[in-house]
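Subgroup meeting minutes
Present: P.N., E.W., G.H.
Scribe: E.W.

1. P.N. recapped why we're keeping a running log of single-chain structure predictions: easier to compare across weeks, and new members can see raw inputs and outputs side by side.
2. G.H. added today's entry (495 aa).
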Amino acid sequence: MKQFKLFINNEWVDASNGETFTSYNIATGEPIAELSAATAEDVKIACDTARKSFSSGIWPQLFPDERAEYMLKAAQIMKKREKELALTEAIDTGKPISETSVVDIPLSIWAMEYFANLAREIQGHVLPINRESAKEVLDFVTYEPYGVVAVISPYNFPLHLLTRSICPALATGNTVVCKASSMTPITASLMGEIFLEAGFPAGVVNIISGSGSVAGEALASNKEIDIISFTGSESVGRRLIELSSQSQRIKKTILELGGKGPAIVEPDCNIDNTIENVIGGFCFNQGEVCCASSRLLLNEKIYDEFIEKLVNKANSLKLGDILDPETQMGALISKSHLEDVDGYVKQAVEAGAKLACGGERYSISPCDKGYYYKPTLLEDVKPDMACFCEEIFGPVLVVTKYKNLDEAIELANATEFGLGANIYTENYKTAFKAAKKIDAGTVWINMTPSSQMSGPFGGNKNSGLGREYGLIGLHEYLKVKNNVWYMGDTPYKFY
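Output recorded in log:
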């Protein structure tokens, strides 16, 4: 069993009280690694280290090209260790290696390369001043790193969602203290080895492990932190905002929280293609996806045909050994989470929903030791049901019938979430109208939810604050400064 200490100031150190915790293979229950459990004092040391590194200028004062070279070297090392990272991510999360090897790890490497190169393009600009008295005034805008960024990543895409935050933070000259979920911490710790081999200056990246209630709260409330970047639940996001407001220094928060993604299916859609996309929208990663298409809004004209084909497709998915390339669905993250998912399904049925398929744990060998749950469809779901409004975060699709597009759009917006949405139609006018009126950070048209590194991603309403990815995501980690310079010989007169 591998052992990982805390990575602080380019050194591997034990927790100050010597405590550790074990990370397990979610699909089998076997122990994988032992990790140090950071205390509040350890978090303070990591944050102080990151601040000292930032203040020294060793990272923020490098030319963007120089920072890019460090990051590109890290990306090269990640490529050399790609199979190891994919295997580790699979066994630590319980998801199929067919996903980690083609989605999770490639996206993580892509983030390192993309933001390394994008940082070379950061540019200020000059503002025109349209006043006679300001002819000798130069007004120009510059961008600067904030300082120290705390990155707290979730369990569903541990490395991918870690790198999509630390990469723009580093590319723009910030230093970082990051913590992965205590349920899936291993690939974050492996990144410590990668940053060390890539030659990053000491203190630029610090990686701690431990519980959210201890290490996470200490990190979010530390006075040296300038930005909190968090992906996870709405409840934890609210707590982080609270901690930020209570701390000595009010912190910027970048939050990607929950979702309850609608998928509007119009009668003119390509039914077979749409079914493939809908299946991926709620079953990919066992449904543990914030932007999952978890609400199917289905037009009554094609309802019966569509549901029949969708149920057949859902029942054909292969649950099994996560290291088998043919496996399509893995295990949920924990027993308690499986019970939560199953609880939503049972509650929905009691409230009048119809169970079309699934609705129970899958425990046929080799799945008997993991927390596998069958792909589940609930029909006759009403907007006032909990399964319609609340994030289940499992392979559960709730189905609601509608008559016309205006009704579908109203249903799509009938939750407090606004992360992602889908529309399936062959009519470009329908697609344009729906995309414009749906309140979501991203609308996918005739495709399943996906990540595009250059496209901004984030939520409206209770789905979050700010955006990740792309130039917009890069600028989340930069302060804007307006510089106004008078170059005349007489005293400046405003009027």
